[in-house]
Amino acid sequence: MRPARIDPESGYRFYSTDQLPRLNRILALKELGLTLDQISRLLEDDLPLEEMRQMLTVKQAEMEQALGDGLRRIRSIQLRLKQIEEAGAFTGYDIVVKPIPAHRILGSRQIVPNTEQGFQLALQLAQELPEQVGPENLDRFVVTLFSEEWTQENLDVEFGYILAIDQGTQDIEIGLLVSNAGQGSPGSFLKQDPDQEARLVHLNTTAHMRLAHLFGNKMVDRGRGGILLTSSVGAYQAMPYMASYSAAKAYILNFGEALHVELKKHGVDVTVLVPGPTDTPAKNWDGMKGPSGMPLMWMKSEQVVRAALKSLGKAPSVTPGLMNKFMSNFGRRLMSRRGAASVFGSLTQAMTEADRM
Fold first, then answer.
1. Which residue among 41, 68, 245, 333 is buried most deeply as judged by most CB within 10 Å?
2. One digit per residue, pLDDT tens: the chain, 357 residues?
3. Domain boundaries along the sequence of the chain
4. Nearest-CA neighbor of 143 among 156, 160, 125, 126?
5. Which fold has domain 173-351?
6. Gap between the Cα atoms of 308 and 320, Å rounded
């Protein structure tokens, strides 16, 4: 701001009383850390309010970032001081905080009693997760500590893998997601390996949920897309001798039909495919004999696919095949849940090598 008068000998600047309000505004804006160019722009009478708001918002973000960096440095100094107090010197390791892109993690977050048990859990998950979902779907293994300082006991940690599909599709526009992962374990529940049952439930539920969440968000942002989730006619009622499988398929059916409503308004079509016995490699599960002598026939996969794509976005779910439709409705509408479970238990037992216990 141009002064009212400048002393020729001392160079001291004099301002009139009329200039004091503007001078005070300049000093106040300077206290905010704004440059003289920014202050000059803000003091213009014709400056739009939106531009003024944007300038101040940017400055606020810069100051918050600087404040956060300063607080992190202070915390690092405090940790160093604590190391000196406890050990008499710096430890043999350094912790460096680096910003990294957001990733989706498939893993487990737990409170572990000590570092030794945490290490054992990490080794266990590092071996089991690739077996559950396939190594091709996973990237590197990561360990996340949810604490501001290192401690030897009661660690709040998350162990898991970065999902490779997230990494591999970042620059690809996925227009249609077909989530078809599934596995069954025919036979009496109490004769099954509980760890294998847990992996089955994880594959038949969590995999679909995570894929739908990952690509559903991207589709909603674009305002278009389609998601096809594969369930089974076993979702409509309990299936003794395939208990975990039918329960997991019921999750997919209800989950997908809910998303059909949720995402419709965003331009994303969601439909659940609910097939009966289909001629795919899945029919060769250990212990599965097939529906010979039963009122169900293997449908060709091409027939099932056509029915699914034809119904995508038009119906919450679709069950291909007249006999499959009849059997699913028979159990739901014409029988009690107990009766349906008993009948389908007999049918399932005929298709498996299960012995009644």
1. 245
2. 677 778 788 878 776 777 767 777 777 777 777 777 777 777 776 667 777 777 778 878 888 888 887 887 787 777 677 767 766 655 555 556 566 666 778 788 888 888 888 888 888 888 888 887 778 778 888 888 887 666 678 888 888 888 777 666 777 788 999 988 777 777 788 888 888 888 788 888 888 898 899 899 999 999 999 999 999 888 888 778 888 888 899 999 999 999 999 999 999 999 999 988 787 766 555 455 555 545 556 778 888 899 989 999 889 999 888 877 777 776 666 667 677 677 676 766 666 654 444
3. 17-87, 105-163, 173-351
4. 160
5. Rossmann fold (3.40.50)
6. 8
Contact 75, 148 (CB under 8 A): yes
In sequence order, what are the residues at sequence separation of 6 or more whose Cβ sits closer than 8 angstroms to the Cβ of residue 63? 33
d(CA 5, CA 25): 20
Residue 191 CB coordination number (10 Å): 11
Among the listed residues 332, 345, 302, 343, the one whose alpha carbon sits nearest the alpha carbon of residue 320: 302
Q: Which residues on adjacent β-strands are paired with residue 225?
A: 268
Q: How many CB atoms lie within 10 A of CB 68?
A: 10
Distances (CA, A) of 147 to 68, 157, 197, 297: 17, 9, 33, 56
Phi first, then psi, for residue 140 (nearest 5°) are -85, 155
The DSSP element (H or E) to which 138 belongs, if any, is strand 138-145
Q: Strand 153-163 to strand 105-114: parallel, antiparallel, or no bridges (unpaired)? A: antiparallel
The amino acid occupying position 271 is T
pTM of the model: 0.52
Distance CA 243, CA 194 (A): 13
Dmax (CA) for the chain in angstroms is 114
269 φψ region: left (φ > 0), alpha (ψ -120 to 50), beta (else): beta
**Distance (Å, rounded) from C-alpha 154 to C-alpha 110?**
9
